[in-house]
Amino acid sequence: MSSPVRLVPDAERRARMARRHGIAPQHRLADPVAATRAMTVLHSTEPPTPYLSIHARVDTVTRDDVDQALYVDRSLVKQLAMRRTLFVFPRDLLPAAWGSASERVAGIERRRIAKDVEKAGIAADGDAWLDDARARVLAHLATHPEGVAAADVRALLPELETAVAVSAGSTWNHTRLLTHLGLTADLVRGRNGGHWRISRPVWVSMARWLGEQPVPLPADEGWAELVARWLRTFGPGTETDVVWWLGATKGVVRRALADLGAVPVAVESGDTGWLLPDDLDPEPAVEPWAALLPVLDPTLMGWKQRDWYLDPGHVPHLFDVNGNGGTTAWWDGRVVGCWVQDDAAAVRVVLREDPGADARAALEVEAERLTAWLDGEAVNSVYASRQMREARLT
Q: How many domains does the chain have?
């Protein structure tokens, strides 16, 4: 590996974050698609997160604006991909995921489902059962082109009437088959049958939803495109960062970095980071900024190695035991606490360190902005951090 071409200080990394992620108020973005594209993808494990992530980056955006992009224009599409996580993708990035990250997870899921089916005595040949079950669902969908709800699929799979036990306290049912069909781009989560804070998707043919037959990129091209987008959003990042975010192997990441001609740079931790060859110029400083980000926001979750923007001592308080990040309050590129809502749904910032009077005032402005946008609606999360839970009790 060649020597790093220059040092990228942590302060410069935080300036890149402010501009490219659109989370500094003076660098907010134009619309939901621009906000999603800026982040490569948005986490969508919890239904409210994409809405809140977009609101953090776009002035005057409404929930209807997000729904328009997701369900009318379909310029944003939900897809299970990296690390078996559900994301909102810009439409043009889908082929890259279908041929790489989604395909990888689909293969892993196939093997697990087949093994579970055989272990549960549902079928002697789990692979054959899966192929048949998928065919049953797709045949039903052919006569219901408007889509099907998960509950409608249950009757097609009577052998799954009782949830399949995987291990003590762990089971799955027909929804896992829908997940697999989504990974293979046969189905997509279409319009939501519930409001913006819950998920009741109608499952639709991906080809019908997009108006074209899905064509995945070849695997190497897909991986390279995902890594290129990640570098544009999160670079400089280390190999460890990319491997973790991508949910792939070191071999895949190294090949993608080589294909892209990625350039090594030094970061303050002493590690080697990577940038695209046309993205090596120093990033100018930005004015101090405040932001309030939701559970699992991509800015928080974009890197594996986070010390340059997150005090390691805060981690047990702001992340759950599985590494899922809760809400976060930011000042000038560093996490300084979280936010919660009170009984009246007003947003309250809870600090883990005192960032000073200017920071507290700026964070209060952001709390008022978010409170007004939520307009009395409370957002709950299964990934509430320790600090969020404790703050709600006070």
A: 2
What whole-number distance in Å separates Cα of residue 383 and Cα of residue 45? 10
**Measured in whole angstroms, how far is the alpha carbon of residue 36 from the centre of its chain?**
10
* 3-state SS class at 355: coil
Distance, in Å, from the CA atom of 150 to the CA atom of 127, rounded to the nearest integer, reads 22
Provide the CA 27 distance to its chain's centre, in angstroms.
Answer: 21
Domain limit, last residue, from 159, 193, 210: 210
- Domain limits at 296? 290-392
The answer to whether the CB of 198 falls within 8 A of the CB of 47 is yes
**1 within domain boundaries:** no
Q: Which residues of 96-110 are buried (b: 16+ CB within 10 A; e: fewer)?
A: bbbbbbbbbbbeebb
Q: Which residues contact 208 (CB under 8 A, 6 or more apart)?
A: 145
3-state secondary structure of 387: helix
Question: What's the pTM value of the predicted model, to 2 decimals?
Answer: 0.96
Rounded distance between C-alpha atoms, residue 61 and residue 64, angstroms: 8
Q: Mind listing the pLDDT tens digit for each residue in 239-279?
A: 999 999 999 999 999 999 999 999 999 999 999 999 999 99
Whether 273 and 265 have beta carbons less than 8 Å apart is answered as: yes
In the structure encoding, which two tokens stand for residue 199, read together? 């998920």
* Distance (Å, whole) CA 177 – CA 189: 13
Residue 127: is its pLDDT beyond 90?
A: yes
Residue type, 346: A
Count of CA atoms in the C-beta half-sphere (13 A) of 276: 14
